[in-house]
Amino acid sequence: MRTPSRLLLSLLAATFVLTACNDQKSSTPAKQEAAQSETSPKLKEGVAAMVNGEPILESRVALLLEHFGSQNPEQAGNPETRKMVIEQLTMQTLIAQEALKKGLDKKPEIADQLELTRQTTLSNAFVQDLIASHPITDEALAAEYDRLKSQFAGNEYKARHILVDSEERAREIIAKLKKNPQSFAALAKANSKDPGSKEHGGDLGWFDPRAMVPEFGAALDKLEKGQITQEPVKTQFGYHIIALDDARQKDVAPLDQIKPMLKQQMQQQAMRKQLDELKAKAKIVIAEPPAPAAPAAATEPQEGTAENTDAAKESAAAGGKK
């Protein structure tokens, strides 16, 4: 969606404030000075005003009215709003005309800003056109929801573990746990190499097993609630002793609850696909970054500096002997 100038909206808001203040000060209309503008019925259709022969289009007025009305609902539909909008657009057009007379648009930095604004406007228009031409249907949303639901459905676990370096040490701990399962937390604090869970008695909280390495998740799937692995579980990190405290079915939010977010995500995916295709077809050449500036040359000591320093030292020493 196009957005009007923030400065223009601010000026428009300020104008309403000043107008409101003036209305409160006087209940009778003051005499107004003769204006240099005039209302003419001869303007072409779709033109709201002319400034030195340059048209101010009704479409631009409507755009500002829409945005200003959304920010100031109490002013929506107020006939004065249209007058204020046209006045501000008139001033903006006059200022822009003066800038062109001064050749400010020829300055490199101004030309760059104008080109960047043009490209940004076109890019936004392209995005809006793509969204409009590729609507996300309810059927597509339902299909994507089912795919994600099957992908993320399953159990999540609440478990503890003890991580050690050797299989022998892991078996020793398992033997101790067989005699006293309640000592798991104490054994984790005393032996575990996992700094993230060690101080919490090995507690990992609730998690999706797919977030763990495959061997760890596979071992969890074989355990019942309250059980401890009877064999060390070897992973890339070492040897684990795992205790399963609880398990539950992973909840998936209903489609109606996540529909707006899912639709936006699918639109972004479609946009990314389109951009990737455009980039693959384009010929893009990127210049090498400029070489860093050479360091400043070191200043060479002036002639006689060393001798003068030595002489100063000898003079100071001689003075100290007196």
TrEMBL record:
Can the keyword ATP-binding be found in this entry's annotation?
no
Q: Which domain of life is it from?
A: Bacteria
Give the InterPro entries listed for this entry.
PPIase_dom_sf, PPIase_PpiC, PPIase_PpiC_CS, PrsA_foldase, Trigger_fact/SurA_dom_sf
Read off the Pfam families from this record.
Answer: Rotamase (PF00639)
Q: Which reaction does it catalyse?
A: [protein]-peptidylproline (omega=180) = [protein]-peptidylproline (omega=0)
**Entry coiled-coil feature ranges:** 261-288
Claim: Coiled coil is one of the keywords in the record: yes
Instruction: Locate the region Disordered.
Output: 23-42, 289-322
Q: Which residues form the signal peptide?
A: 1-19
Composition skew (Low complexity), residue ranges: 294-307
- EC number(s) of the enzyme? 5.2.1.8
What GO molecular function terms would the record report?
A: peptidyl-prolyl cis-trans isomerase activity
Q: Where is the PpiC domain?
A: 154-246
- Spell out the Polar residues composition-biased ranges: 23-40
Q: What class of enzyme is it?
A: isomerase
Family membership noted in the UniProt record: Belongs to the PpiC/parvulin rotamase family.
Protein name per the record: peptidylprolyl isomerase
- Source species of the chain: Sterolibacterium denitrificans
